[in-house]
């Protein structure tokens, strides 16, 4: 389905009353989900703190961590929150073309973060830090791996938003819209803010 | 304009992102430079808390949105923090 130039700046909206009434319920459900995710990640961060000094035969954190590299990755993820909120802002102002550009930028930044994490994991394994070598390794990979999986899901959702926008099926009042995907994406960012501090900066 | 529909301008978002970037640079400095060791834990947790709050309040619009959403998120946080502390106390990692 193609969109005319005039239609580019006007998000297609569905004003069916039934769907409109459902929108706050979806948003409420998203906040409930995010609240539950706080407990999920809180438990995993606590687990990491329990084992943060148990290196067994594996390498110590300061031997493998590359803080400048992880700082750059953190900056990339932080900036993806900016592009996400700009996408939402553009969509709210019915500028679909700009919203799509910011969505693509967010997905690209998310994919860059993931690529960095894969590179980092590969380096750690090469240097002897694996899931099985020590309690520190297990809890580190469990926490950062689950976070990475959340980022991957977010990138897929963002890509889906871009595809929907190209086919003119991006709605503000139904479905998994930009606002809900944005909330999820920002949550992934705030979890990384904590992980970066607790797992990386306090370990070195 | 109702509280739930108010959104700041893109310029405001850029300024917030700039402040977050500066805070991240400060975190890296505190974490890496020995001079800051006396304030390392407090400084890092303080900056992380400020960044966390800024993203939640301004990028996730919790500051401008319905109090219900704020409450739901806070319930999650308020459940997570005691669970977190109890786990660490149980294994004597906070004593």
What does the model show?
The complex is a heterodimer of chains A (204) and B (95). Chain A is mainly alpha-helical and 204 residues long. Chain A has helices at residues 5-8, 17-51, 61-64, 67-92, 96-126, 135-166, 178-201. In chain A, helix 6 packs antiparallel against helix 7. Chain B has 95 residues and is mainly α. Chain B folds into two domains: 1-64; 66-95. Chain B contains three helices and no strands. The longest helix of chain B has 24 residues, at 67-90. The radius of gyration of chain B is 17 Å and the shape is flat. In chain B, 26% of the residues are buried.
Helix tally of chain A equals 7
Q: Architecture of chain A, CATH level 2?
A: Up-down Bundle
CATH homologous group name of chain A: Cytochrome c oxidase, subunit III, four-helix bundle
Give the ordered list of helices and strands of chain B: HHH
What is the gyration radius of chain B calculated from CA atoms? 17 Å
Main beta sheet of chain B: none
Alpha plus pi helix count of chain B = 3
Average pLDDT confidence of chain A is: 87
Total beta-strand segments of chain B: 0
Topology of helices and strands:
The complex is a heterodimer of chains A (204) and B (95).
Chain A: H1 5-8, H2 17-51, H3 61-64, H4 67-92, H5 96-126, H6 135-166, H7 178-201
Helix pairs in contact in A: 2-6, 2-7, 4-5, 4-7, 5-6, 6-7
Chain B: H1 10-32, H2 40-59, H3 67-90
Helix pairs in contact in B: 1-2
Short description:
The complex is a heterodimer of chains A (204) and B (95). By secondary structure, chain A is mainly α. Helices cover 76% and strands 0% of the residues of chain A.
Key phrases:
heterodimer, A: 204 residues, mainly alpha, Four Helix Bundle (Hemerythrin (Met), subunit A), 76% helix, 0% strand, disordered N terminus, B: 95 residues
């Amino acid at each position: 389905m193609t969109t005319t130039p005039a239609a580019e700046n006007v998000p297609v909206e569905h004003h069916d009353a039934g769907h409109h009434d459902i929108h706050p319920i979806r948003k409420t459900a998203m906040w409930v989900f995010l609240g539950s995710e706080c407990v999920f990640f809180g438990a995993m961060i606590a687990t990491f703190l329990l084992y943060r000094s148990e290196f067994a035969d594996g390498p110590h954190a300061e031997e493998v961590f590359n803080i400048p590299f992880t700082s750059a990755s953190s900056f990339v993820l932080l900036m993806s929150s900016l592009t996400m909120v700009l996408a939402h802002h553009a969509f709210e102002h019915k500028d679909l073309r700009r919203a799509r550009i910011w969505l693509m930028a967010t997905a690209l930044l998310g994919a860059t973060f993931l690529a960095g994490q894969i590179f980092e994991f590969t380096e750690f394994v090469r240097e002897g830090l694996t899931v099985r070598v020590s309690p520190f390794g297990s809890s580190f990979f469990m926490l950062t791996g689950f976070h990475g999986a959340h980022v991957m899901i977010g990138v897929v959702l963002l890509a889906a938003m871009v595809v929907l926008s190209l086919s003119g099926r991006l709605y503000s009042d139904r479905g998994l819209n930009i606002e809900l995907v944005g909330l999820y994406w920002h949550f992934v960012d705030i979890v990384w803010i904590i992980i970066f501090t607790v797992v990386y900066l306090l370990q070195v | 304009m109702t509280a739930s529909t108010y959104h700041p301008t893109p310029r405001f978002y850029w300024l917030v992102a700039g402040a977050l970037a500066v805070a991240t640079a400060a975190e890296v400095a505190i974490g890496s430079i020995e001079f800051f060791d006396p304030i390392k834990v407090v400084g890092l947790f303080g900056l992380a808390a400020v960044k966390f709050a800024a993203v939640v309040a301004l990028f996730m619009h919790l500051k401008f949105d319905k109090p219900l959403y704020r409450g739901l998120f806070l319930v999650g946080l308020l459940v997570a923090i005691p669970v977190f502390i109890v786990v660490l106390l149980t294994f004597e990692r906070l004593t």
